[in-house]
């Protein structure tokens, strides 16, 4: 909503930066106060040319190394989120084709040569292309009932095993309490 309003009045739209996920993962700091304080420091640093000159002297290899670590943390966070899901074959296909479409547009932008200009503007971003492909496939590909049944059966087996372990632990604790009670007598 804010981005739409910003575009109407002629300013740049608001966007979140995925780099923040990597920085928060590395530092563990997500406080708004720290971000506000750092913003004030950045504004002050922008007003002092000597600080800008100091920043320019940072070697590109150092910036590249920091970038690799930061973006690797973003990838790790994404993989961590995906690993919590119980993927079906359909889900894996949707993710794989969405990522492939996004990477294709990013690596080989000439693949959009024969598209109309209006579509090239939209599909020029790998994130947009990958997201649209994934959303489209999610709507088009029907849910396989056998995958849903297998998923439900797996969950039931895991629940049953967990329940048995909990029950066994409770029985062991009960027996231990009885033996301790007997020893006290």
Helix-strand blueprint:
Elements: H1 2-8, H2 19-27, H3 32-47, H4 49-56, H5 60-83, H6 89-107, H7 117-123, H8 126-140, H9 145-184
Helix pairs in contact: 2-5, 6-8
Order of helices and strands: HHHHHHHHH
The percentage helix is: over 70%
Total E-strand runs: 0
- Identify low-pLDDT runs: none
- Overall shape: it is extended
Number of helices: 9
Task: Give the averaged pLDDT, no decimals.
Answer: 81
β-strand percent reads: under 5%
* Radius of gyration from the alpha-carbon trace, in angstroms: 26 Å
- Report how far the terminal alpha carbons are from each other: 72 Å
**Biggest beta sheet summary:** none
Q: Specify the structural class.
A: mainly alpha
Protein name: Uric acid transporter UacT
Keywords: Cell membrane, Membrane, Transmembrane, Transmembrane helix, Transport
Family: Belongs to the nucleobase:cation symporter-2 (NCS2) (TC 2.A.40) family.
Subcellular location: Cell membrane
